[in-house]
Amino acid sequence: MAKYELPNVWQWEDENSNRSGNRPTAGARFEQTLPVGEAPFQLYSLGTPNGIKVTIMLEELKALGVEDADYDVYLVHIGEGDQFGSDFVDINPNSKIPALVDQSQNPRVDIFESGSILLYLAEKFNKLIPADIHGRTETLNWLFWQIGSGPYVGGGFGHFFAYAPEPMKYPIDRFTMETKRQLDLLDQTLAKRPYVAGDTYTIADIAIWSWYGRLALGDLYEGSDKFLNIKEYSNLIEWSERIADRPAVKKGLEVEYLSIDEETD
User: How far is CA 59 from the centre of its chain?
Assistant: First the structure.
């Protein structure tokens, strides 16, 4: 393989990519009309680690008796570029799932970024986030830890381990080391308390389980549990299994997505 030489100015060469491919520009690529149902919340998403955070959160709220947490969820085919349609970009100018609309407010509230959505819902209903300053701060510490650390697992380790055209030692070593450091951090933390932020289940657990719990259970990248020697993180495994057994988590994973192409009355 020829050695890569850095150009003086980088230029994008994938001029023939379809509308679903990444590009160095933002914004809508085509006109789009998203369906809007009757539920208070309209969720446009996909069952990725970031996407399931929101369906799990909404199902947890419903399990807690929050009637106003009803939602309609529509499938956004990111492989087909649905996230670059004009209506979706109006909700999330960053063109990433999940995107949530709270239409119980007038005017409606558009929320994007999974961490922001979890925090919005927790604060709106005063659920799954402690009221005291110490518990709230610790919960937010770990929520933002996941948002900042997760890309090393997904875009870093996951990409080069599972999706890159060919194995490359340098990036795999780099991101495997960082992923294992994060797993060890969680394992050490969960040796001291039952949930990530303390004694109670919070939005921090939802955010972190969706990535790291699924990784620990072998549900993210085929063969990664053996490659990462997940079995050495016994506290993380126990927590992951316990969260996975929650009825609302199961419902959040099994939710049926509506098509964004369906007509609504």
Answer: 16
